[in-house]
Structures are given as C-alpha cells and as structure tokens.
C-alpha cells in the first residue's frame, strides 16, 4: 500500500505543499494511479513512470520540504489533445524505488499542464484543477 505523507511543505512563495503519495516501487505507482485514469491514458502512465523510474524526467522547480530544498522533476507521455499523463515528483531517480508524487496532470498546451483535481495541491505550485507552467505556478 502507498504511504500518505502528512507533513506540510513550503515553496519559495510560502504556499503549503505536500507529497500526495509515496510509492514503494513502479508497480505500486502503476496500480494505484491507473485506477484514477481513463483507460486511454494507461499506456501514457506506463511510459511516464518508466521515464521517472529510469531517471529520465526533466527538471521542473525547487521546493522546500521539511526545511530542505528538493528538486521537483516531471515525466510526460502522450499527445496533447488526445491523451497524455504528466507526473511531478522527486527525487529525479527514485532511491530504493520510492517516488514522491507532488502532482499528476496532462499537457494542456506545449508548455502548460492541466493538474488533475484529485492529484494536485490546494494552492500553487501545482494547484489542482488549474493550468500551470512546468514550475507549478499559474498560467502566464
């Protein structure tokens, strides 16, 4: 079972940010997140998770977690307007296979992401149900 981390974190803008879920390994992440997505996104989820667990994600931003600055990464798969999945997480290459999910969304445009209502933050960065840039801030 995934572990829900209840600690609160603060970004540079002092918005409260938290880890939504910590997955013990890629199979755990696949099984839990798959249930939250439409069937047409399942292969996108698999590809995004492969990239994340292989350390091939792209840099997004830095946030402070438990008084320690961490780098947030993102991994995407799919095609904008058809089906896509984007994971926002840390660390870049999950040590001991633990991946900490910050947000889940999809491409809205080439450089904006629509954060899922059930897998986003209460505020920015990565506010649920909102279009955000790669750094999780609101659309510009």
UniProtKB/TrEMBL annotation:
Official protein name in the record: Uncharacterized protein
């Amino acid at each position: 079972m995934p572990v829900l981390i209840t600690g609160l974190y603060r970004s540079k803008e002092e918005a409260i940010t938290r880890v939504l879920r910590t997955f013990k390994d890629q199979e755990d992440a696949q099984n839990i997140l798959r249930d939250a997505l439409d069937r047409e996104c399942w292969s996108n989820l698999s590809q995004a998770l492969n990239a994340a667990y292989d350390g091939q994600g792209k840099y997004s931003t830095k946030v402070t977690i438990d008084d320690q600055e961490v780098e947030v990464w993102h991994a995407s798969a799919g095609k904008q307007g058809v089906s896509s999945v984007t994971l926002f997480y840390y660390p870049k290459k999950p040590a001991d296979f633990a991946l900490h999910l910050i947000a889940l969304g999809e491409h809205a445009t080439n450089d904006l992401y629509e954060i899922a209502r059930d897998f986003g933050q209460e505020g920015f960065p990565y506010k649920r149900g909102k279009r955000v840039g790669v750094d999780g801030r609101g659309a510009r």
